[in-house]
Amino acid sequence: MSVLSSVDFEKLTPMMKQYYALKKRCQGAILFFRMGDFYEIFGEDANIAAPLLEIVLTSRERGDKKKIPFCGVPYHSARSYWHKLLRKNYKVAIADQMEEASATKGIVRRDITKIMTPGCVDELEGLHQGVPNYIMGVYEHPEKRHWVLCLADVSTGELRLGKVESFEDAVKFIHQLGPKELLVRRFCEKRFSEKLKSSFLTEAITIGLLNESILRDVEKQKELLAGSLGPGGLGLHPSGNLVGGEELISALLDHFQNLQLSLKPFRSVKPLVDPKTIRLDNIVVRDLELLQTARMQDEKGSLLRQINFTQTPMGSRLLRWSLLNPLVDFKEIVKRHKIVAELIELGSSKVNELRKTLQGSSDLMRLSTRILSKNIRPQELSRFKSSLTKIDNLFHKLDLFSKEAKLQTIEKLKKDFSLVKPILTLLNQSLNDEAGSLKLMGDVIATGFDSKLDQHRDLASRGEEEVSSYQEKLRLDTKISNLKIKPHKTYGLLIEVTKSHSSKVPDSFIRRQTMVNCERFTTEDLKDLDDKVSNAKDYALQREEELYFDLLDHLSRHQEQVCLVSESLSFFDLMVSFAWGAMENMYCQPKLNQHRALIIKNSRHPVVEHFVGKKDFVVNDMVFDERKKIMLITGPNMAGKSTIMRQTALIAILSQIGSYVPASSAELPVFDNIFTRVGASDDLSRGLSTFMVEMQEVAHMMRFATPKSLVILDEVGRGTSTEDGLAIASSILDSLAKDVNAWTMFATHYHELVPFSSVYPNIIQMQTEVTKDRKEIQFTHKLIEGACGSSYGLEVARLAGISNLLIENAKGFLELQVSKNCVPEEKEPKEEVQDKVQNLHNDIGDEIMNRLNNLKLNRITPLQALNILHDLVLRTKKAPTNSLFHDGQLLL
């Protein structure tokens, strides 16, 4: 039983009654309850928070003769504790004192001033600089039956809207975008919870509920949308016609309002999927280790870490987004390549100057959001000003460099940077240079900015001088040399006299406090002086707050310019990062073509070469053309097949985000999608074996790949028996060559597939080179023409450390197997092999052909496709002896 359920409210102390009343309102969050200089945490919240925050858990009386657990943290360091809980996926509510304790006789009035959830954090201390902090809403439209998705980041005001056709597609988006929080309808909560728990996400996702009443209240929707997006609501935005969009965005905005977040930052809605980009699915992101390594889930060792030379948080986030969403717009890719080329022409020293100018820039986008919500602290506003100063310096540097070299494509960026001039001028005039060290009001506004403020400050300053003079006068009059006048929270200015001088205190002194070592007094003159100084300070502070919020209002009116500058800065930072990376790592500018060829000379894997060293990494050439688009690669394990295929896909992605690529030269098309199936993986929590997961991923690939796609397949069919695996691999290769004709790299240990290159003219036969030195083999990691005659499994096992005894035993088993399976037969001429392959479907029979012809691929699920494929494999085992398939084996 929880502490709350056993409470006798009538017997509680007034303070505990107030606590429980607020606790009911905080939506299941851990409540930080302000009490003087501390935030206290009570009850079950304390039991949860104390071990997580590593603070002492104790207890106290609550008024009904029972004790309640509690713990506390100092108010001045509370933020670090809030964010620690948020990072552990807990919600946090803040209850502050709404009045001074000295100004009230009874209990101090308190209220909830903020509720924070993992997906709704706007304080920079609680955010990862280079990573977005997303919350996602998901809503199945009751009539259209499609799923509407809305992605939001309260720290930047980013809002994206789109739709998918199925629950599975919605889950794929969740996997790819990694929101910290998910809002769904109540009847979907369990379904999403179970699905996400079984998905082995690297970070847990907090699941909350959408407000059902908002989803049905059209008038409330209009009010929320108009209040955030303007009078036109959603209709003026690219996704404005999406059925269900208004309902879902309104429900998210309502959620933000309930958390007491400002809706002002959400001024525009972008499409969830930009038509100028492709959305790489989570399989590709995992297989190519774009954001983190597959095994350790660590950013170190990922492509992102290797190519990230950005200097600003916004640039880092843009790089991350670009990797997940490469461009397909030919002109936009070329434009980026040109910008990188222009920067490289400046030379490394000047590019490094630009990087140093950008270095230390604060997060303009997130700071501008805090300006709009009026939550920005003086310290943060000072950082905002400092970042604008850096942009102004950047503008002057680019202006200077453009006179020395042609920087045509950067001209627009220079114009955008010039927009900071009026904003920076205002901040320079209004903000004190020392504001960067101030968290609260007081000397934030610069002297000379406002005459009224200056007058109040002068009065306060003169008053302090008078206090100092009065202190000297009292010392002379009383002969008490260590007499001091000090401020007191309750009594104001007091005269402090040590006990050793108490006999010298005159009768005119009015006693206020008696301490162990001293006594404290006041006088009528000191009271008047105290009032004068306090009033002047209060007036100065009040005026300063007025000016500060007026300044925020003025800056808010420049929000569009700030957003434009921030976006331009993040883009420029990304381009400078690409240029610097290209010069540091000797990357080349890729040339794009209209799917005529894919030719990469001396290609390298950008991450692997970093760890093994440029000198030790073995480079390889990739040569395809529109007539030879499918590369069938054979070779043993550890010989480099997977690395070669991965680096080709990475080069394609780098090219399509606007970067140079790790090669001496590269010419390649713009792919409309990239598909990978590399490595073994299972999903035991859903009862899916390695083979089932592999087949699902291949089914997805075969369904959506086009002649303009890039397909990477590594060892397909190895998760089942050799016969079934060979049959499936054969069927997939056959379909890729005959039907799909995508740009394909197909690595296999099934040497029986090699004759396919004799049948289909679009298949190239390649192998990873193996050399023999007496009895030992060596892998050169070079890709050469031809087919590998052996997988060298025993040799690889020996290299891996398998004992000689086991190796010799394995040789015996292998010889026995070969002697059983080998049946001498004449080698068939090439023409007969071709006849067998081309007559494959006729040999299997009309029954199977009819079934294939009647399939509606766009109406079946991957699982149904897998079952059909399994049936066909079983059918081949019953095929006539003159078939290409006999007893489940390929007769080539």
Account of the 3D structure:
- By secondary structure, the protein is α/β, with parallel strands linked by helices.
- It folds into six domains: 4-116, DNA repair protein MutS, domain I (MutS, DNA mismatch repair protein, domain I), CATH 3.40.1170.10; 127-273, Nucleotidyltransferase, domain 5 (2-Layer Sandwich); 284-434 and 554-585, MutS, DNA mismatch repair protein, Chain A, domain 3 (Orthogonal Bundle), CATH 1.10.1420.10; 451-548, MutS, DNA mismatch repair protein, Chain A, domain 3 (Orthogonal Bundle); 591-791, P-loop containing nucleotide triphosphate hydrolases (Rossmann fold, 3-Layer(aba) Sandwich), CATH 3.40.50.300; 828-892, no CATH class.
- The protein has a six-stranded mixed β-sheet with strand order 3-4-2-1-5-6, sandwiched between helices. Strands 11-10-7-8-9-12 form a six-stranded mixed β-sheet, sandwiched between helices. A six-stranded mixed β-sheet has the order 22-23-24-20-25-26, sandwiched between helices.
- A hairpin with a 2-residue loop joins strand 25 (763-773) and strand 26 (776-785).
Provide the descriptors you would attach to this structure in a database record:
alpha/beta, MutS, DNA mismatch repair protein, domain I, Nucleotidyltransferase, domain 5, MutS, DNA mismatch repair protein, Chain A, domain 3, six-stranded mixed β-sheet, 31 helices, disordered C terminus
